[in-house]
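Hi V.,

You were right to ask for the full record rather than a summary. Here it is.
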Amino acid sequence: MSTVRTSTPRTARSTADPHAEYEHEPVPQAARKGLLSVSAVWFGFPMNLGNAVFGGVIVYHLGFLTGAVAIVLGNLVLFGYVGALSWLAGRSGENFAQQTARTFGTLGARIPAAFLSTVVIGWYSFQIGLSGTNLQQALGWATLWGALAGGAFFAALTVAGIRALSLIGLIATPLFVVLAAVALWYGIGDVSLGSALTYAGPGTALSFGAAVSIVIAGFADSGTMTADFTRWAKSGRSAVVAAACAFPFANSVAFLVGGLVVAVGGAADPAADGGGFLGLLTGHGPFLTTLAVIFVFANLGSVAAHCLYNGAVGWSALTPGRMRPLALVLGALGLLAALTGIWAHFVDWLNLLGIFVPPIGAILITDQVVLRRRTATRSATAYRWLALLAWALGAGAATAAHHLLPGAVDALVGIAVAAAAYAALERLPHRADRRGEGAAR
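Predicted structure:
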């Protein structure tokens, strides 16, 4: 496996190549995209059926108002977290693997980069499974054929590159808004939207902290890998604006739509299916049914293609490979995983992401934003053990919180401990770790 590159090589392209994905070098200024294009990439990503499902589950357990507070709070955390990482990417043009090498070392970065580039394929598999089950429940299609069709379409989108991610976002977002409104119209029955706000739910065991954790964990992986998308922004400020379109705005909308579907009584089985509203769009004539099928592929395709793009860019940065061939390989592996039914264990998946992923971003932000005056002149080294140690401490604290403090927000515990541990370790006289880092780059 090749060393992650951390700076622009002398042979880097200075002019824009419309077909390049810049897997092995920072995106040059000439190839950067406009604010609308980069914002569309992030804006269309979280506004999806999966998040409506999760939002419905939260509201079912906590009631609408309390659930809405948990949803908004989780999204504000994501804004601060993803926004800071996006600012770094917009300034440097580096993808996630290159960004990580600055903090974890050129070889040490392989560990978090390979980990995230692999686990993000789990979300890709989840979207494939969701496409199969949605089409089966709504139209009676065989789950296998729905999943196969979805997997093929999602992989084709990814291979088309960053421009396709922007385009599908521009299509999927208005479709979501319009069809969500139509679904609420059909699902509202005798319940008014005003009375839906007083929906209390059955008062089951999901805690407020667990609900916030679900919101954060849902985008812990791709949110941490935001540099793969926001490296295309023309500046750090533009990258933050693009990230803000997703968090708190688009992600909150998707969760709250799912919550409203449950609150108005439009969900057949809210405990299991949350606020998934596709079933409300069928049985009203061929036009709306056809539109619902298009919506499934466009909406879930937006999510799946983003996740597969993260994985393919990550692995191409870690190897001599290119994004497009790797997307096909990883797409096939994700499809196989989906067909085994592994995607159905999404609660365990969210727990895994909420525990192990946020500490990585916390360390990057602490090193490259909070302590940047101290660390900016540090020369490259193979491994930065203190960063790896801080990751282990943050993940360990989040794991302990998950098992010992059921009401805690695991992701926040991991972020706080990892950031504090890294800041403390960075200030210690750790000469062994600093050997070879003293000279300016």
